[in-house]
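Quick look at the format.
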Amino acid sequence: MISAFYANTSLLTGILAVMVYMCTLRLLDYEDDGGQKTPDFPRAVRIFSILPDDDDSRVQGGLSDFREFTSVSQKGDKEKVSDLEALGSLQFAEEMLRLGKTEKARKLFEHAVALAPRNPDVLNRYGEFLEYSAKDIVKADHLYLKALIRSPNHNDAARNRGRVAAVVEEMDMSALHRIDSKRDIVASIPESNPALKKAKREAYYQHIYHTVGIEGNTMTLSQTRSILETRIAIGGKSIAEHNEILGLDAALKFINSSLVNQIGRIKIQDILELHKKVLGYVDPTEGGSFRTTQVFVGDHIPPAPSDILPLMNQFESWLNDWKTSRLHPVRYAAIAHYKLVHIHPFHDGNGRTARLLMNMILMNAGFPPVIILKQDRQRYYQMLVTANEGDIRPFVRFIAECTERTLDMFLWSTSEYSSEIPAILSDDLAKSPSTSIRAIDEIPDAN
């Protein structure tokens, strides 16, 4: 009787495993190698995962998976169900790799990460796929670190990260050295160069346009330019949108006149003064003052109001620490930006103030004010979320990319100097028409 029971159970398990394998071919609505498109299979089938054999605490085999699914569903433990599905998708991805079907494997890995974005096994294995099959060592390194943040004793992730970390750091430094070279060429252009004057003026307008645009301001670039040049209101636009532009204009002028090349420490009072200028036309009563109420920023809960002053004192110490001064200026500026928005010391204007602080640091190091495009708003915020999760390097790389794109705009403004850079990122400029040569040429000569 007992042997017959186990025989029937084994048969049922085998049947379920075959069903899972067959259904794998229909996962995620992707194209097979012959180009035939197949639809998603039902979610009910995906729960029959075949999990690794080396962990006795996990469910073994298709029938046990079904029992585990039933038990978990009754408990309402959605995260555990997602882990089960993710690990099943992971195993199917491995099978696709063995069959040489890399694109199918990639979609299965992505599906597994979407189901269980915090599972260290899933993160580590997807990182290995990206490193070896997709040749994306930077993202692989990020996933290894993310796995270690979730599970510090994960041996495979630790071994993988130990192998690639130095290589990724070398790649990051190479990019920063390239940016330094472009900065030096821009710095060598005579201030009297007419094209440089036009580029600086255009960059000023664009910086304000994109910075307020990230916060939701609907003014166009030409409208922003008109307000700054004429101080005449734009019909159909709110007073608040006008005041945001005027506030940022005042803050940039304050940086240029008082903070750039200043000797001594960066003080909390400097940051408060920047914030006062930013909100000077929008909300004068809040400008230059720390918030006194709790705020919420998406999934991030900033510190309580009572913690702001101690944290800002720590931030001031970090800004002026000798170790911090040894960081590359782009890294220094990006981390300073992140730290300030993480503390979120103000009720409003945190992002604008953080970007101004970042640019003040960059300008002191010889860089022009960096433009973060409003088109990159979602990516910008996602990089901040990634930093909140424990890896700030993607955000630093994003700021480095914006810095290089801004330098390229200056170099493209004059063919005499752009020829010295053989690898100008013309694709970046093409993606953002507002930074085109035509826009620069339309700016009238400086008075």
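Next, a different chain entirely:
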Amino acid sequence: MAELPVLKTERLVLRPLRIEDAEAMHHFFSDEKAMTWWSSGPHETLEETRAYVRVNATDTKYLTWVITENCGDALGWVCLIPGREGVAEIGYNLRRTHWRKGYVGEAVSRVIDHCFGERGLHRLTADTDPDNMGSNALLEKLGFQREGYLREEWTTHLGLRDSIIWGLLKREWKPS
């Protein structure tokens, strides 16, 4: 896998995830409220977070940028999971102390610009829990279209959960 480029916005620097980011990412992964809509429950130990981060930092099926302010500690991440040619799924998280500051929208917008520009993708998808109002509102604001509703698609720490499938086409995207 080619090295991920550093991506910048007005307030943020998005850099490739490193294994050493586990300690900073543990703020998110150990937070019960922040992990409500994640596919697994909160991490109980730093070692659990280290193992999880190690996969995203080293497995070539994940392209993961950490969200930072001025290259400081990882506040969260934006991850791409490449699929078919020209298509990838996007996912993200953010430390709860930084919610409602527009950071995720800013970071995801920059990654979308990169995907449709430098990476040459033509389609992005996202998969959310129907009850995750914040994430669903963000995707809609970014121009994603609700394309499907899958009943009892995931078994998570909350039990069987439905899933909304979102899609965004390159021709629909308005670059930031």
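DSSP finds four helices and eight strands in the chain.

See the schema section for token definitions.
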